[in-house]
């Protein structure tokens, strides 16, 4: 029994000494030599938009500053301009004016601005004079932008307004590719 207690105490003392020695060795690290790692930040910008309709009541345009700070959301603005020589009345079924979607290279939607929002359920009418615009601002979360890793990603905007007095399409449907550098 004495041997067993002696071995056990030697084992415990040996373990604590080894642990202390390792800690002491780690505190003697030379900090005068710093290692600098270079991480190239990616930048994401909007490419040339592609439109699918020739004649519409409004002309849509998507714009954004080049995205370089991966810790912040990307700000995107959609502008819809009345391209007619007369006022255009639009009816919206909710507080949503437009919905921005992000699509991967396979065409699968990976995010939309409406998934994080709640809109009022009230009818509203907006009349745009000739050349007048309606703007919608979007904030794409940094975690979503981190998924954009190469070519083939694109933004697409779905405008929520419906024309009240015209059979002409309201706005050009299209998409804007993202350019990753």
How does the helix and strand content classify structurally? Answer: alpha+beta
The largest sheet is: 6 strands, antiparallel
Globally, the shape reads globular
What Rg is obtained from the alpha carbons, in whole angstroms?
29 Å
Count of helical regions: 2
Question: What's the helix-strand series?
Answer: HEEEEEEEEEHEEE
Secondary structure tally: strands: 12
- Spans of at least 5 consecutive residues with low confidence: 1-40
Question: Beta-strand percentage?
Answer: 25-35%
Summed over residues and divided by their number, the pLDDT gives a mean of 78
Walk me through this protein's architecture.
With 181 residues, the protein is an alpha+beta fold. 17% of the residues lie in helices and 35% in strands. It contains two helices and twelve strands, in the order H-E-E-E-E-E-E-E-E-E-H-E-E-E. Strands 1, 2, 6, 7, 10 and 12 form a six-stranded antiparallel β-sheet that branches. A hairpin with a 5-residue loop joins strand 6 (98-103) and strand 7 (109-112). The longest helix is centred in the first third of the chain and has 26 residues, at 2-27. The protein is globular and about 50 Å long. The termini are far apart.
């Amino acid at each position: 029994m004495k041997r067993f207690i002696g071995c056990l105490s030697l084992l415990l003392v040996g373990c604590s000494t080894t642990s202390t020695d390792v800690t002491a060795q780690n505190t003697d690290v030379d900090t005068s030599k710093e290692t600098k790692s270079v991480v190239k930040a990616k930048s994401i910008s909007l490419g040339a938009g592609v439109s699918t309709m020739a004649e519409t009541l409004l002309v849509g345009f998507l714009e954004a500053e080049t995205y370089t700070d991966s810790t912040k959301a990307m700000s995107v603005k959609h502008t819809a301009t009345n391209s007619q020589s007369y006022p255009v009345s639009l009816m919206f079924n909710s507080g949503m004016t437009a919905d921005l979607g992000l699509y991967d290279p396979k065409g699968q939607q990976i995010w939309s601005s409406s998934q994080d929002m709640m809109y009022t359920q009230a009818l509203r009418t907006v009349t745009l004079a000739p050349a007048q615009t309606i703007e919608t601002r979007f904030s794409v979360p940094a975690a979503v932008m981190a998924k954009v890793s190469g070519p083939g990603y694109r933004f697409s905007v779905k405008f929520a307004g419906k024309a009240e007095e015209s059979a002409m399409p309201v706005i050009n449907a299209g998409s804007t590719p993202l350019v990753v550098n």
